[in-house]
């Protein structure tokens, strides 16, 4: 079975601060990794994803994430946050075994609050 | 603690048949979201409801419809099924309108296989 752990449930930062949200997963095979964002009152949007290749993945709105296979981690980063980044962030993993996908498992999410 | 309940967990239908998926949100949650994840693909947002009214619409085919009932559970109805509808369908729920702290909780998904 696959699982995802997000380390911080609530994070409060000031504008222009740097951001790193931790995500670790547990799965014995090949995985696809995702970060989603949900702004207040909206549905999930994909920030970035990793399937294969360069472990440093760049997404929308200046976000990036690094896949470190040896640490089973996929941390999300942004060098300088803005007030509009206030949202909930979800890490997700999709295991691939055999010929099919095991489905998407989400972490419990991290509330990010950016103070002006 | 109670979670988002989806049923059935697995469903096999033939082409052109109809399928109905059900979602029971966490108690006191008034918002429901539906997502579709095809094999090897990202989850795609289909539709959402808040207080029994449709609040947002994504890439939901015209052959699909959904509603939220008075007890806040939701049903996704899919007609004239096609092979490409085979996917994992996620439901999620949250409390809407509370600004921040609007944590979204996901069900485990319903696997639909169209043969």
CA distance, first residue to last residue of chain B:
36 Å
The oligomerization state is heterodimer
In the predicted model, the low-confidence regions of chain B spanning at least 5 consecutive residues are 97-101
Mean pLDDT of chain A: 85
What can be said about the biggest beta sheet of chain B?
7 strands, mixed
Tell me the helix content of chain A.
under 10%
Distance between the termini of chain A: 41 Å
List the secondary-structure elements of chain A in sequence, H or E: EEEEEEEEEEEE
The shape of chain B is globular
The structural class of chain B is mainly beta
| Mean pLDDT metric of chain B | 86
In percent, how much strand structure appears in the residues of chain A? Answer: over 45%
So what's the overall shape of chain A?
globular
Q: How many distinct helices of chain B?
A: 0
What is the CA-atom radius of gyration of chain B, in angstroms?
A: 14 Å
Quick summary of this structure?
The complex is a heterodimer of chains A (116) and B (115). Chain A is mainly beta and 116 residues long. Chain A contains no helices and 12 strands.
Please give a structural write-up.
- The complex is a heterodimer of chains A (116) and B (115).
- By secondary structure, chain A is mainly β.
- Helix content of chain A is 0%, strand content 59%.
- In chain A, a hairpin with a 6-residue loop joins β5 (30-38) and β6 (45-50).
- The radius of gyration of chain A is 14 Å and the shape is globular.
- The relative contact order of chain A is 0.33.
- In chain B, 0% of the residues lie in helices and 50% in strands.
- Chain B is globular.
- At the A-B interface, β5, β10 and β11 of A face β4 and β9 of B.
Blueprint (SSEs and pairs):
The complex is a heterodimer of chains A (116) and B (115).
Chain A: E1 3-6, E2 10-14, E3 19-21, E4 23-26, E5 30-38, E6 45-50, E7 56-58, E8 64-68, E9 73-78, E10 87-97, E11 100-106, E12 110-115
Parallel strand pairs in A: 2-12
Antiparallel strand pairs in A: 1-4, 3-9, 5-6, 5-10, 7-8, 8-9, 10-11, 10-12
Chain B: E1 5-7, E2 10-13, E3 19-24, E4 31-37, E5 44-50, E6 53-57, E7 64-68, E8 74-78, E9 87-94, E10 105-106, E11 110-114
Parallel strand pairs in B: 2-11
Antiparallel strand pairs in B: 1-3, 3-8, 4-5, 4-9, 5-6, 7-8, 9-10, 9-11
